[in-house]
Write a structure and sequence with these properties.
The complex is a heterodimer of chains A (564) and B (235). Chain A is of the alpha/beta class. Helix content of chain A is 41%, strand content 13%. Classes of the chains: A alpha/beta (564), B alpha+beta (235). At the A-B interface, helix 18, helix 19 and helix 20 of A face helix 2 of B.
């Protein structure tokens, strides 16, 4: 049985690429029925690999290999319903598929769907999204360069190399209005043009895939499903800024992403789409992968660079920015996974088209990892400017188990908690900042009335204190003090004086810390103090926890004193 | 290299564009507090005491690592900066176990001087009283971790001036600690040349000569500047 078609040729022009794509499409078309089994991390954790094998075995046992093709696919987004199997020609999505369902699914390919497994793919979760980065919606074998090329892959790179000068690529990016998807939202075109304008023998391109925010898994998913697209985006960037060497810095905690990116680099090199003389032109771009060893702070660009150089992941004061002096002291372009993934649709579809999505200052779409107390846990992609309410109640399906929505936490440990009264706010860089939160890389944790906001602030502070590198005093000592203060408040030992002290410590740490980790660490405290001060007071003055986390509702949160 | 003119605390002055704010200010008798900066070794930017306000920038900048530029307007003193500096020094006092009266560096300690310069008369943050050890395994010197403020001056001087790299920081966050070699007793270090540069570079009584009693340890790290100059000439 042939479940995969492999080509073995160098691709050196847009024409050859188009030929390869056409051949692959023709090969795919000989199969009447196609089935995709999600092989993302969430689905694999519930045995989607075994489901794939079972479906393939079923086809073999029924001798239908010539009409049915079951392929590994990518993430559908609604990870809570894993494992997911899609049948695109019938526009069906099966959820929570078991091994024993294989026979029925294959039988149903030509006829009536298996009703009990159907996932409603016409629900708001699917229809309200706008997928630009994740546009293949899982219907693409992430490990097959042939399928990627058939879906239009690498045409943006060859288009850029043949039709655009490097300056024109930078201009296109500037016109698109794309802003950095790592969190801070720095204009991508401006960053590219800064690197391109430096005078240097050697420049580098780095893909920051050190996603470490609690509750964030967007970059992981994009890397797992679209490794070729990220590499293509990096290659276009390298061409635009004049770099010949690139690194993908990915955390070792993402083994599947590491595996897929490693294979993708090798595959693309084999076909002349990475490496020396890409597309038979005088453009060289070698990519290597570097694994993070687990420090959260290595997501900070200067710490990341130090880690690639083999040093300890310690941030350095900026300026000089990496754009001027980065890896090995050379100008370095460093962008997030999703930023690079956005480059491909901008080049292939044009900046004007891309810029029609989003708001005047925040263009395009953004992927978010919805988690916490929400019906549809998973990965979603929406245009910037979507309201939080639409995101949580329409796409996310609201809060389960009869609980009441309390807050949504965005932006990771440097972000903040946004309460119900601001649910109509739109998701864009400026609005989230005004609300004391942060776009961040796209983690979105929904909390209901069973969450204690002081406890939430304590959790994030504990995270920051544990992840502080220890280089600068305010972050090293300040986060430890703030954590202790929050801990005392949750135990009913806090005083109003201490609360004032906590607020002033927040101010010191925010404005004096060396890097973004320390500067952002006070945000969860500041935002919960802004919107949920009542809960702090309930703990300090009333010695009660309204959410029933620090002690059951109505009970004293202080430790019982010894009766003797 | 270009020569630029700038204003610090209202005073007009000139500097080279490869000089940092701290040094240009110092040349004009404007002292900006710092504990991790030491002439003759590389800049670190970790103590955050030299933060200054620069007109037109919303962020505070560390004077030791920020180069001067044409037309720059810098302010090194304000109520806000004084408050931040005080809190940072308070943090250092609460982080370790600093007991001046029994310290070898009493009256010769940069941390002590800093707190008196900043008029710190009490500590408002809770003391952490960490359990820290004293390493007296070296023949000539002692390292008392209780008095270490993790400024990394010893790390840098050992690496850059002596070339031994005996010292480094292990762990992270509040768990950070100074270690010799691969976290072995200093006396067992195979890289240490016993040159004593770290003793002179240490701003507190954390690294000192054996046999010194309270208040007897006087340090002088000025020679590092000449060492650095000679090295630069050679290369």
């Amino acid at each position: 049985m042939m479940i995969d078609r492999k080509i073995n040729q160098q691709i050196s022009s847009p024409e050859e690429l188009a030929n390869v794509a056409a051949e692959q499409l023709a090969w795919q078309a000989q199969y009447q029925h196609r089935v995709f089994v999600c092989m993302g991390t969430a689905c694999q954790s519930v045995q989607s690999g075994a489901v794939l094998t079972a479906l393939q075995a079923e086809i073999k046992s029924k001798a239908r290999e010539n009409e049915c093709l079951v392929s590994p696919g990518g993430c559908q987004g609604n990870c809570a319903s894993a494992p997911l199997v899609s049948v695109p020609e019938q526009d069906l999505l099966y959820q929570k598929v078991q091994l024993s369902d294989a026979e029925e699914i294959i039988e149903a390919l030509a006829g009536k769907p298996v009703g009990r497994l159907l996932c409603d793919n016409k629900s708001d979760f699917f229809t309200m999204q706008n997928r630009v980065v994740t546009n293949h919606r899982g219907l693409l074998n992430p490990e097959s360069i042939e399928d990627y090329i058939a879906a239009g892959g690498f045409s943006a790179l060859l288009k850029a190399l043949t039709d655009f000068t490097p300056e024109a690529v930078v201009q296109e990016l500037q016109k698109s209005g794309l802003r950095g998807r790592g969190g801070a939202g720095y204009p991508t075109g401006l960053k590219w043009s800064t690197v391109a304008k430096t005078r240097a023998e050697q420049r580098y391109v780095i893909c920051n895939a050190d996603e470490g925010d609690p509750g964030a898994f967007m970059n992981r998913s994009v890397l797992e499903d679209y490794p070729f697209r990220v590499l293509e985006g990096m290659a276009i960037a390298a061409y635009a800024v004049g770099a010949s060497k690139g690194y993908v810095y990915v955390r070792a905690e993402y083994p599947l992403a590491v595996e897929r990116v490693t294979k993708a680099i090798r595959n693309a090199e084999k076909h002349g789409l990475l490496g020396n003389k890409i597309g038979s032109m005088s453009f060289d771009f070698q990519v290597e992968i570097r694994l993070g060893a687990g420090a959260f702070v290595c997501g900070e660009e200067t710490a990341l660079i130090s880690s690639i150089e083999g040093g300890k992941g310690l941030p350095c004061p900026r300026p000089p920015y990496p754009a001027e002096s980065g890896l090995w002291g050379m100008p370095t372009l460093i962008n997030n996974v999703e930023t690079f993934a956005n480059v491909v649709p901008i080049i292939s579809g044009g900046a004007e088209k891309y810029a029609t999505i989003g708001t005047p200052t925040s263009k395009g779409t953004k992927t978010f990892a919805l988690s916490g107390s929400i019906m549809n846990t998973g990965l979603v992609e929406v245009p910037l400017g979507t309201s939080l309410r639409k995101m949580i109640f329409d796409i996310g399906g609201g809060v389960p188990d009869g609980h009441k929505f309390k807050a949504v936490q965005t932006g990771g440990p440097a972000g903040g908690c946004i309460p119900e009264e601001h649910l109509d706010a739109t998701i864009d860089y400026e609005t989230l900042m005004e609300l004391g939160s942060f776009m961040g890389s796209g983690g979105m944790i929904v909390m209901d009335d069973s969450s204690c906001m002081v406890d939430v602030a304590k959790f994030f502070m504990q995270f920051c204190a544990a992840e502080s590198c220890g280089k600068c005093v305010p972050c090293r000592v300040g986060t430890a003090h703030m954590h202790d203060m929050l801990d005392r408040i949750t135990k009913g030992e806090g005083t109003m004086e201490e609360l004032g002290q906590l607020e002033s410590l927040c101010d010191v740490v925010k404005f004096t810390s060396l890097c973004g980790l320390g500067q952002g660490a006070p945000n969860p405290v500041l935002s919960t103090l802004r919107f949920f001060k009542g809960e702090y007071l309930a703990h300090i003055v009333g010695h009660t926890c309204p959410a029933g986390v620090c002690a059951p509702v109505g009970q004293d949160i202080r430790r019982p004193t010894c009766a003797l | 290299m270009r020569v630029v003119t700038l204003k610090i605390n209202g005073q007009e002055m000139s500097g080279r564009d490869d000089e940092d704010i701290l040094h240009v200010a110092r040349e004009h008798d404007i002292e900006i507090p710092t504990l991790c900066q030491l002439d003759g070794i590389s800049e670190w930017g970790g103590c955050r005491l030299c933060l200054v306000e620069i007109e037109g920038s919303a962020k505070l900048s560390a004077a030791c690592v920020t180069k001067v530029s044409e037309g720059m307007v810098v302010n090194t003193e304000s109520e806000r900066l004084a408050g931040y500096r005080k809190t940072i020094v308070e943090m250092l006092f609460t982080e370790g176990n600093h007991v001046c009266s029994v310290c070898v560096s009493n009256n010769n300690c940069e941390l002590q001087d800093m707190s008196s310069d900043l008029k710190i008369d009490h500590i408002s943050l809770p003391y952490r009283y960490p359990l820290r050890t004293v390493d007296a395994s070296h023949d000539l010197f002692i390292f008392d971790a209780n008095r270490c403020i993790l400024c990394t001056r010893c790390v840098r001087v050992c690496d850059e001036a002596e070339g031994a790299h005996t010292w480094d920081i292990a762990g992270r966050g509040i768990q950070s600690q100074l270690v010799s070699d691969l976290h072995q007793p200093w006396g067992e270090s195979t890289s240490c040349t016993s040159c004593g540069k770290c003793v002179e570079a240490c701003p507190t009584g954390a690294i000192f000569e054996k046999g010194k009693a309270a208040g007897e340890m006087v340090k002088d790290a000025k020679f590092l500047v000449y060492l650095a100059e000679m090295k630069a000439e050679k290369s």
